Amino acid sequence: MPSFDIVSKVDMQEVDNAVNQAVKEIGQRYDFKGSKSEVTLEKDAIKILADDDFRLKAIVDILQSKFIKRGISPKALQYGKAETASGGMVRQIITVQQGISKEKGKEVVAVIKDTKLKVQGQIQDDQVRVTGKNRDDLQEAIRTLKGKDLGIELQFVNFRD
Q1: Based on the domain organization, do 107 and 134 belong to the same domain?
Q2: Which of 53, 54, 130, 149 has the fewest CB atoms inside 10 Å of its own CB, making it the most exposed?
Q3: Helix 53-69 and helix 12-28, axial crossing angle in degrees, nearest 10
Q4: Does residue 104 sit in the same domain as residue 89?
Q5: pLDDT tens readout for residues 130-140
């Protein structure tokens, strides 16, 4: 029975490269001269520490542009609230989304069911497996999901006949 998996994964090496490029650009930019701004990557989170809101927004813009250049979707990033830190600094934590949460998995399965195709979706940990008897139905399900904006980046892997 043909099947495929729907996953939402981010290459952490690319995230590391994008953060390093952003740090390098921040160090070279004129508007950050004398600033104590810093960007650090910790496991699945990016910590941004900036002097003020203006610089924080500038750092986030730099990070987003670097992510896009490295082929990482902005949908894979979950932005935390900007909060004040010690010394008048501003801190923000950006979480890198790995996997499909249960709620998003339910949304994906609901979209698949709404298509009225003869396919079934099953939530398995952080991925969704879609099975069906007809390969064309599976491809139609992929097309439908690509057309929907579910708020996360989806990859379709492990297509088996």
Answers
A1: yes
A2: 149
A3: 130
A4: no
A5: 998 888 888 88
